[in-house]
Structure formats: structure tokens, C-alpha cells
Specification:
- This protein is an alpha+beta fold.
- The chain has three domains: 167 residues, THUMP superfamily (THUMP fold, 2-Layer Sandwich), CATH 3.30.2300.10; 127 residues, 2-Layer Sandwich (Alpha-Beta Plaits); 107 residues, Alpha-Beta Plaits (2-Layer Sandwich).
- It contains 13 helices and 14 strands.
- A hairpin with a 4-residue loop joins strand 3 and strand 4.
- It is elongated, with a radius of gyration of 33 Å.
Length: 411
């Protein structure tokens, strides 16, 4: 069938607007909008009908310009209105780019399937594609912002079923490094095990196992600066609650969910977090990153350096010789007993690159351990009842345990 034959068959199905007629041939020619295509096709058909004195076709063409379009229900008459509503929904948000999306009704989807099946056209584009584009062009013109098809900061969703605008606001990601300068603080929020966060006597009705975390000390100021609904904390690994995180700190990303502001002073935010943490944590190097940075952060396999104070009952030379054995050794570790309640019982192998004795006293010593990430260093000392092999306790033949732990380097 020719283009005009297809167009005639479409017109016979009922009144159709220029947009919906032109959209059936959207893949043909460039530089035209669908309504321009539709008008051009109708003009040629009207000229043919005049030559052929086809009064029936002329009547169909007349009605198609006046009656309600059966395909889109004359939705395209309201493009300006949808664009204005989109602009109003965006007014409380900072953004550099956006994208328009559409949730079509079941009726519109069915109408589209009917016209494709009946006409046999293979040149059409979906209704929602044109609607997204046309509303997007109008929002661009009003706001001066550009549509971004790949990674929009905000999606303006046209909910046709419920006649409303919804916004899907993509997260803002802030990366930096933190140092933990006080013990007894977990990295992230830790709901009470008894009540699951609801509040009970055990947690003092706070819903939390610990009243502060690195996450929360940062979160409060991000919430205020970005005016977001919530945050999520992503760390490059984590240290134990009783461990310090020193040196250059640990890399982290705060995900600010549904942010109203994006253009924030990260230097001022960094200063505010450090000032109000009361010496418990310190952040540095805050910068904006893309969402892909979270996956990269989680996949980091960095070595770790620890300074460990241990309690022991062995002689200095015996301890030194045990540390010499550990240098370059592969350590077999089953998941420690202390975390079995929340982690799978697996066996892992990690390498100790170096193990040095920094200071020695009769009942305690300070060690410096450089190892692969993922090694449970407390169990490297204690042996964890044979679940870590070899261990300092096994090599010295005496009990040993960690009493203070500092992470010097992590990622």
C-alpha cells in the first residue's frame, strides 16, 4: 500500500487529529513534526478528493479537523496545559536537566494497537514518545533547561490515567573520606535487634542499638543543605564499632534522595559536619559524583593497614617469630563466631603482606598489620577457636586478643 492508501484507510476508521495521523508515518522524512506531517497528508488527500469528486473523503477530512480524535481522545490539544503543570511541579527543585515520561491509559494503548493493526503501517512511533517530546520542548522553552534522555536529574511523569503530574527526582551523590576519631560508633544506622527499630526498653525507646553513627553525624547536615527526603550511606567497607578509622580515612558516598537543592557549597558542608561532630568524626574532600560511583566504591578491593594493641602472655622473641611466619602468609578464615548471627558461614582466604611489632610489654603489645581487604584481623590474633588458621594465638601457643584497634589505611 502507498502512503496515501494507508492514510485513506486510517481516515475511514474515524476522526483523527493531525498529530495522530502524522505519527503513523513518523519514520518517514525528517525535519517535520507529526502534526505537520498529518496536515500535509490531509492536504494531499483533499486535493485528490477534489479531483476525484470524492465527497465521502472530503467529509471525513472535514470531520477529522473538528471532532474529537478517536486515537488520542484529543490529548494533543492540551500540550500547553500539561507543560504548564510540569513547570509548576518543578518550581521547588533545583535541576540542570530533566526528562518527560508518560503513563498511558489502557484505552489509549488499545487504540494505538488497533490503528497499527488496521492500517498496517510500519512507519509509526508510539503516542507517548511524541507526547514526551512535545511537552518536553515546551518545558525547555519555559524553563531554559534541557531535556536529557540518558541521565536526567528529574523525570516529569504525565499520569494520564489520574490526570496528574508526578516527579521522579533522581538522587544526588556526594563522595568524600571520613576519619572516625571516637570508639563505640558504628558506620551506619543500626536498628535495635529487639524491636527492629520500633522502640523498646532495651534501646531506651529510640529504636537504635547505638545512638550515633558516622552516617547520622553526616546525614543531619546533608538533609538540611540539600533539603532531601532521606539519605543512604555507602562505604568502601567498614571498620568495627570499637575501632578508630585514622590515616587518610575511608572513602564513602552519601546518597541524598529526592533532593530539592543540588547547587550546594560542599566546602561549607564539610566544615559544618566537622564542627558539629564534636571530634567524633572528620570528613574531607567532598565532591559531587554520578550514581555509577556507588558501584565502583562497593567493588573496591583495597588493602588495609591496622595498628592493633593486643593482650598476650608470651615472650617478645616468640611473638616476633610468629609475626615473621605471618608475613606473606595466606590465612584461611571461616566467618567469625561474633558475626555468624548476621553473615553466612563461609570460608575465605586472605593474604597478610606484613606484620610488625611496634612496641612490647609483658602483657600487651602493639602490632602493625598490612593485609588484604576482608581479613578479620581480630580473629587473626585470637584464632577464633580454630576458625582462623594460622593465628597469633596458635603460633605463640598462648591466648591473645585485640584490646584496641585502629585502621590506618582503608581504600
Amino acid at each position: 500500500m502507498t502512503i496515501l492508501e494507508i492514510a485513506r484507510s486510517i481516515l475511514h476508521q474515524g476522526s483523527i487529529c493531525d498529530h495522530c495521523l502524522g505519527r503513523q508515518f513518523a519514520k518517514l522524512s525528517t525535519g517535520l513534526s507529526n502534526d505537520e506531517r498529518g496536515k500535509a497528508i490531509k492536504l494531499v488527500l483533499a486535493m485528490e478528493a477534489g479531483v476525484e469528486k470524492d465527497s465521502g473523503l472530503l467529509e471525513e477530512l472535514r470531520k477529522s479537523g473538528e471532532a474529537r480524535c478517536w486515537v488520542c481522545n484529543s490529548l494533543f490539544r492540551h500540550l500547553d496545559s500539561w507543560a504548564e503543570r510540569g513547570v509548576q511541579a518543578l518550581r521547588d527543585y533545583e535541576y540542570d536537566n530533566f526528562l518527560v515520561g508518560t503513563k498511558v491509559t489502557g484505552l489509549l494503548a488499545e487504540n494505538e494497537e488497533i490503528i497499527w493493526a488496521e492500517s498496517g503501517t510500519t512507519f509509526a512511533e508510539p503516542l507517548k514518545t511524541e507526547l514526551n517530546r512535545e511537552v518536553g520542548k515546551r518545558i525547555e522553552k519555559t524553563t531554559g533547561k534541557k531535556a536529557n534522555l540518558r541521565k536526567p536529574q528529574i523525570v516529569v511523569l504525565l499520569d494520564l490515567e489520574n490526570d496528574r503530574i508526578e516527579l521522579e527526582v533522581n538522587s544526588l551523590y556526594i563522595q568524600g573520606r571520613y576519619r572516625k576519631l571516637a570508639r563505640g560508633i558504628p558506620q551506619t544506622r543500626w536498628p535495635c535487634r529487639e524491636c527492629g527499630g520500633k522502640g523498646c526498653e532495651r534501646c531506651g525507646h529510640t529504636g537504635r542499638m547505638y545512638q550515633e553513627s558516622v552516617d547520622e553525624l553526616i546525614r543531619l547536615h546533608v538533609l538540611e543543605a540539600v533539603q532531601c527526603e532521606d539519605t543512604a550511606f555507602h562505604g568502601a567497607g567498614r571498620e568495627d564499632i570499637d575501632a578508630l578509622m585514622l590515616g587518610e580515612g575511608r572513602s564513602f558516598i552519601v546518597e541524598a534522595k529526592k533532593p530539592h537543592k543540588r547547587d550546594i557549597d560542599l566546602v561549607a558542608l564539610e566544615s559544618l559536619i566537622n564542627l558539629n561532630s564534636r571530634g567524633k568524626i572528620e570528613v574531607k574532600g567532598l565532591r559531587s559524583v554520578d550514581s555509577e560511583a556507588v558501584e565502583q566504591l562497593k567493588s573496591m578491593k583495597a588493602d588495609k593497614v591496622y595498628r592493633i594493641k593486643i593482650q598476650h602472655s608470651t615472650k617478645e622473641e616468640k611473638l616476633k617469630s610468629s609475626l615473621d611466619i605471618l608475613k606473606g602468609a595466606l590465612i584461611k578464615q571461616k566467618t567469625p563466631n561474633r558475626v555468624l548471627h548476621r553473615r553466612a558461614d563461609l570460608e575465605r582466604i586472605r593474604k597478610v603482606h606484613s606484620a610488625e611489632l611496634e612496641s612490647f610489654e609483658t602483657d600487651n603489645a602493639v602490632l602493625r598489620i598490612h593485609c588484604e581487604g576482608g581479613l578479620y584481623v581480630k580473629e587473626l590474633v585470637s584464632g577464633d577457636n580454630g576458625r582462623t588458621i594460622p593465628s597469633i594465638a596458635a603460633l605463640t601457643g598462648n591466648e591473645a586478643k585485640v584490646i584496641e584497634l585502629e585502621v590506618i589505611k582503608a581504600g
